[in-house]
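User: I'm curious whether this sequence folds into something compact or stays loose and floppy. Could you predict its structure so I can see for myself?
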Amino acid sequence: MANDQTARPENLSPGSRSDGSTGDATLATAGRGVGWDAPAMPLRQAAYEKIEAYLNEGELIPGQVVSQRELVERTGLTLGAIREAIPRLEAEGLLQTLPKRGLIVPSLDVSFVREAYQLRVMIEMTACPIAVRSIPKQKVEGWIAEHEEAARKLSVDADAQVAVEFQKLDWALHDEIVAALGNRLIENVYRVTAIKTRMAVQRHIKVTPANAERVIREHLVFLTAMRDGRLEEAVEGLRIHVTNSQTLALGGTLDSAS
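Assistant: Here's the prediction. I'll summarize afterward.
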């Protein structure tokens, strides 16, 4: 999916830094040789993406204070890269600076979660009809096959790692539906809001072996409708899925029929 997470070429020579020094501008790419023309990822982008993953996956939690040095140790990247990534994380409200103490992961209340899901419904309901028409049938069939395989594995063994991998598929699937809008501003707002929502209610909405079957079942409803071009059913299936996620995120429970 194309969004602000994607590294872009920069006007920097290999090994140079944006501040004019060397060794901190790009992530070295193994296997370079004649004909290699893909730019290496800027280190600040690599740092941003690693910290984003920690926030998404609950390795950094609301209220936690972390130093820049600790982030260097966690990511394996340079202090310069971490420092260059921090302004973007602060601007997006994903980290806040505590003078003389380091950085803190902000806490988000129930009102934010409720409003975040309202925004999510608006965006995904707008994107879904476009996604039905524009995402290739082969792509949707691939998603369906991945869901069915995850369900098969979970029926054999409730392996937490299967749930972790399915969680990544879940996030990527929703991102791609939103990407069908072709609006990078909306994509970025959706992405950052999703990260904050996961930060706020990680224990309620994280996919585990215990609830993965429900998520797979709900996904397959709208995915099969997307594959078959049944627009209204796809939109309604997606709406029900997002509404169920909101209910759980706010600490509620679902009817046994859900």
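Summary: DSSP finds nine helices and three strands in the chain. The beta strands are 65-66, 96-98, 102-104.
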